[in-house]
Specification:
Blueprint lengths: L9 E3 H7 L4 H6 L21 E3 H8 L16 E2 L1 H8 L3 H6 L13 E3 L2 E5 H10 L19 H14 L5 H8 L3 H22 L5 H8 L3 H19 L15
Antiparallel strand pairs: 1-2, 3-5, 4-5
Helix pairs in contact: 7-9, 8-9, 9-11, 10-11
Length: about 250
């Protein structure tokens, strides 16, 4: 995600390589973008093209502390293909088709940054609000105060999943009276808790088994199972448990 107003700061892998005096191929093969302390990509993990924040990269190469990125949601945030699909509660390939489906209001036009299509969060939310059918509600407006007490969000999200295992983040946001991002995180944690309980009884559990037993979409079952196993392996190794909130959670 490119936070609002930071689109001019975006760097591609080739830009990082040039700054390090390397070719893009050499830079990538040596995994110089993964050395300790190097800023993480700002694009989603599944993105076809990884992007970085230029201010963070420049600080790293100057030997200065890497500044934190803004964390507050904004309607001006630019979402990549996977993040836009996540916000809409659909698979990325479905989001691709939304550009020209007949008898359907086209999705918002993309904003191209560093050669990669992005969509403004606010425009996606407006499109969802005008789109008829289940899962079209965008939840609370970005920047508004959430009505639901934080302590109540997790158990209510778990109950929503029990009632409707394939519920979208947008629909959950409307029911929980929270933002879509908060709903995404709550659903991811609720799925992770449910899968961990199943793993205690069945260490050989598969994503297909989760889909059959809990009713989650296969993509959600696969990501949640992977995160749960990574967390379990981290604990067994004596390290800090991996965060089981699934990035790219599609609600």
């Amino acid at each position: 995600m490119i936070r609002a107003g930071r689109d001019r700061q975006v760097r591609r892998l080739a830009d990082l390589a040039a700054k390090a005096g390397k070719t893009a191929k050499s830079f990538s093969n040596q995994k110089l973008h993964q050395v300790p302390g190097h800023p993480k990509p700002i694009s989603s993990p599944e993105a076809r093209v990884l992007l970085w924040d230029g201010e963070q990269v420049d600080a790293f190469h100057a030997g200065k502390p890497v500044p934190a990125l803004p964390t507050k949601e904004s309607r001006g945030d630019l979402l990549d293909r996977n993040e836009a699909a996540e916000l809409a509660g659909v698979e990325p390939r479905t989001w691709d088709r939304y550009g020209n489906l007949p008898r359907m209001r086209p999705r918002p036009d993309p904003v191209v940054v560093a050669g990669v299509d992005h969509w403004r969060r606010g425009e996606v939310l407006d499109w969802l609000a005008d789109r008829p059918g289940p899962g079209s509600s965008p939840g609370r407006p970005v920047g508004s105060r959430e009505a639901a007490p934080r302590s109540s969000i997790a158990p209510r999200a778990a109950r929503l999943l029990e009632r409707e295992p394939a519920i979208t983040a947008a629909a959950a946001a409307a029911e929980l009276s929270v933002t879509v991002d908060t709903a995404q995180r709550a659903l991811a944690r609720a799925r992770a808790d449910a899968v961990r309980r199943l793993l205690q009884d069945d260490a050989e559990l598969t994503a297909e088994g989760i889909r059959q037993r809990l009713g989650y979409p296969l993509w959600a079952a696969e990501r949640t199972l992977k995160a749960a196993k990574e967390a379990s392996e981290g604990s067994a190794a004596g390290g800090r448990p991996t965060n089981t909130s699934v990035r790219g959670e599609q609600g």
